[in-house]
Amino acid sequence: MSTTEERESNKPNKGANPLLLIAGLFVLGIALALLLFGGRIFDDNASVKDGGDFDQIPSLSGVNREGVPLPVSGAPLNVGDKAHDFNLADPAGNMIALSDFTGKPVIVNFWATWCPPCRQEMPAFQRIYDTYTDDELVVLAVNEAETPETVTAFFYDEMEFSFTPLMDEEAAVGTAYGAVGLPATFFVDRNGEVTAVHRGGLTQSQIEAYLEGIIP
Description:
The chain is an alpha/beta fold. 38% of the residues lie in helices and 16% in strands.
């Protein structure tokens, strides 16, 4: 081999080194991210998939405006499940728990004032509530993440409803129930068992049909 050929063969490959450096830094970054955050992320996801305790997930923990914890845990509800108990304030700050109504048929409706189907179905819940008073029917309108002032203005001042609004200020109860879209309504019988789940707006006739499962 000539001297010129030897010099050419011994020249470093200048184009490959930057690529190798970038690839090495990328792999190192992934390794560091997994080391620092991977275990916590994977543990949280596993608790959801396995139907674990929702109190273990930081995004679902919360308190009401008076600092009272919202004790809700469990996987999203389906027909046949035992309804999760909860303890929420009404717009005036009075604490109300689902377990307060043990032995009574309960409709748990998740809603918000900015949700048009929620507003449209509300008068039907009032008519149903008035019709089935003798059957001790309870209607709990769980508001998602709005202020007591907003709920009071719509619920009492504008619409003059007489059933019970509750403040889910952290959306913890709605998340635990699986109310991922609004409105969502859960029908709970006198034994605390979910007999029907309806996602989307309801008419009065639909509500009455679902009531057959909680008011024989």
